[in-house]
Amino acid sequence: MSTVFDINSLARENVRKLVPYMSARRLGGHGDIWLNANEYPIAPNFQLTENTLNRYPECQPATVIQRYADYADLQPEQILVSRGADESIELLIRVFCEPGRDAVLFCPPTYGMYSVSAETFGIEQKKIPAGIDWQPDIAAIKNNLDRVKLIYICSPNNPTGNLIDPAALHQILELTRNRAIVAIDEAYIEFCPQHATTHATTRWLQDYPHLVILRTLSKAFALAGLRCGFTLASADIIALMLKVITPYPLATPIADIAAQALTETGIQTMRNRVKEIVSNRAYLQQALSKLALVENVFPSETNYILVKFINAEFVFKTLWEQGIILRDQSKQPGLENCLRITIGSRNECEQLVSAISALSSQTQQIKETENP
Ligand SMILES: Cc1ncc(COP(=O)(O)O)c(C=O)c1O
User: Fold this and answer.
1) For residue 207, what are the contacts with CB-CB under 8 A and spacing of at least 6?
2) How far is the centre of ligand 1, averaged over its atoms, from the C-alpha of 76 (Å)?
3) CATH number of the domain encompassing residue 341
4) Do 36 and 125 fall within a single domain?
5) Ligand 1 touching residue 84 (CB < 6 A)
6) Rounded Cα–Cα distance for residues 159 and 339 (Å)
7) Residues 6 or more apart from 29 whose CB is under 8 A from it?
């Protein structure tokens, strides 16, 4: 009998070694309260209006592109629509990075897909730890630009929740002029509307031809299940990305719903949703900061908060068993004992507070019995 051939031996070496991104769905769990994927807690209601499923869809559905261009106050040539912002993260690597020669740079703790996408394509990664208050360490970035073709900056940053200082963004854009692409990942930007108005990075596109902005309908638009994201950049960068994107990245029903979400009414609904989440966030931050098990509740400009606990593993596991699913961030550099908590409905926030509050009083009682 011939020996069994190991098909893995045919796979590219970096794919064999690759640890895939552990999305909230892959991590599983049995919950009633899902606070681990920064989703909106209630499903929005849409009806399909486009039934021509016998035909292939447009590669870049014109209505969706036009409506996003209006929303972002840009020209349609400056917009690309893709299967979530995640696809765009990967397209940028495919367009700009040569394996074995170029590198990408990002600043942990940050969103995990920059690393996974670079790893998949065998691109060197330069990880420059974030500095004070999780702002980019400009000096360290400056000293590590050799071979760097692409920089990902997440603002507001996932999982820490902070915006990146516009002055730091300008410094990075100046350092990289004529040598690298800077992709600012603004998946959560709608949750800080004031900032988005005063410092709108979209307006910087005219001064920085190497700037790329990533957006999504997954967060404030409450459409994570739709898988629809946007890239905003110069017409030249969009044209390059269109060379490598799949022929039909957006299914007809997705384009149909995305177009509806981007009408004036859709945008107003999104803005109302943001107000509700921001108010729930303030409630949750206040309530959690009073609890004995909580060491620190970090400020947030997003639909989640990062919380440092006395013992995060204990809180995470106990709540998991109770069907309240949070996201453990304690393995990320500098985030020991930190959990990331999505802002759910007010009722979900209240249930979470009472669950952690009950744990806090139990812990207090144990301590008192041990040290009367
Ligand atoms: C910072 C950041 N960028 C991008 C994404 C991916 O967005 P999409 O759902 O559009 O692929 C996420 C998803 O959680 C995210 O947190």
Assistant:
1) none
2) 22
3) 3.90.1150.10
4) no
5) yes
6) 9
7) 36, 320, 325
CATH number at residue 189: 3.40.640.10
Question: How far is the C-alpha of 182 from the C-alpha of 153, rounded, in Å?
Answer: 7
Instruction: For the chain, list the strands marked E by DSSP.
Output: 33-34, 79-82, 103-106, 124-127, 148-154, 181-185, 211-216, 229-232, 294-297, 304-309, 324-325, 327-328, 338-342
Cα of 183 vs centre of ligand 1, distance in Å, is 13
- For residue 361, the CA-to-ligand 1 centroid distance in Å is 36
Could you tell me if 258 and 275 lie in one domain?
no
Does ligand 1 lie within 6 Å of residue 189's CB atom?
Answer: no
Write down the residue that tokens 């892959």 correspond to.
26
Going from the C-alpha of 145 to that of each of 148, 181, 214, 232, the distances in angstroms are 5, 12, 22, 24
Q: Rounded CA gap, 282 and 273, in Å? A: 14
Quote the pLDDT of residue 31. 79
- For 302, the domain range is 7-40+267-361
Q: What is the share, in percent, of the chain residues with pLDDT greater than 90?
A: 88
pLDDT digits (tens, 9 = 90+) for 191-219: 998 887 788 999 999 999 999 999 999 99
The pLDDT value given to residue 3: 78
* Cα gap 48→56, rounded to integer Å: 16
**Residue 237, amino acid:** I
- The segments of the chain whose pLDDT lies below 70 read 1-2, 364-372
| Cβ atoms of residues 134 and 160 within 8 Å | yes
